[in-house]
Amino acid sequence: MTQIVKIKGMNKYFGKLHVLKDIDLTVEQGEVVVIIGASGSGKSTLIRCVNGLEEFESGTLEVDNHPLAPKGGNQKALAEIRKEVGMVFQQFNLFPHLTVRKNIMLAPMKVKNAAQVVANATAERLLNRVGIGNQADKYPSQLSGGQQQRVAIARALAMEPRLMLFDEPTSALDPEMIGEVLDVMRELAKEGMTMIVVTHEMGFAREVADRVIYIHEGQIVEEGKPADVFDNPQNERTQSFLSRVLAH
């Protein structure tokens, strides 16, 4: 299998705070990797490094054969990674003054120089794919949170990414809206999209992940198949974390 992500010995600091500590991680093409851990453990910082949104201080990081250098080196590779990696954030980050259709058209037109007619067809196809084709000409403020997040997923998919990153995509949603976003993510997984997902949705992680990674204080302390990590965790920190989150 092709390795889309290769990380070796990566370290990240915020000032004197050592946020990521000697991270080793590979992600295969078509694999769904779910990252779990307490708030502040470094989960979001890790995937932001993968997308080049955060610089790292040491180690190596390669995304789809594009090596990123520490401290913002190799800007050419960074530009290529941005074209090939889609990211969905906690907040939807949609442009409020643009319709849903135009929010999605923007990325292929600006980054991939797609013709307007092509970008429009892409937007319509992807909105249907995420189940809100009838919302194309509304503005983000006219949609529910769950619908806005599905627009954000469609916008990321408009780049035809090789890798999708999800940074707690349901954390800002009301409980009744979480399921509709997770359903879209389940479909992407079934279709073979390579995904790295940071989430607190343990049921989703157990059901969809090929591999679950538990991060504690910036270190990967346990990883394995969902059944192994959830039902038979080996590390006492993983055991303690899961006993807290699975009890609710």
UniProtKB/TrEMBL annotation:
SUPFAM superfamilies: P-loop containing nucleoside triphosphate hydrolases. InterPro entries: AAA+_ATPase (IPR003593), ABC_ATPase_HisP-typ (IPR030679), ABC_transporter-like_ATP-bd (IPR003439), ABC_transporter-like_CS (IPR017871), MetN_ABC_transporter-like (IPR050086), P-loop_NTPase (IPR027417). GO terms for cellular component: plasma membrane. It holds the Pfam family ABC_tran. It is a peripheral membrane protein. Keywords: Amino-acid transport, ATP-binding, Cell inner membrane, Cell membrane, Membrane, Nucleotide-binding, Transport. Residues 5-242 form the ABC transporter domain. One of its GO terms (molecular function) is ATP binding. It is found in: Cell inner membrane. It comes from the Bacteria. The keyword Cell membrane applies. Its main location: membrane. PROSITE patterns: ABC_TRANSPORTER_1, ABC_TRANSPORTER_2. Belongs to the ABC transporter superfamily. This is Amino acid ABC transporter ATP-binding protein, PAAT family. It comes from Marinobacter persicus.
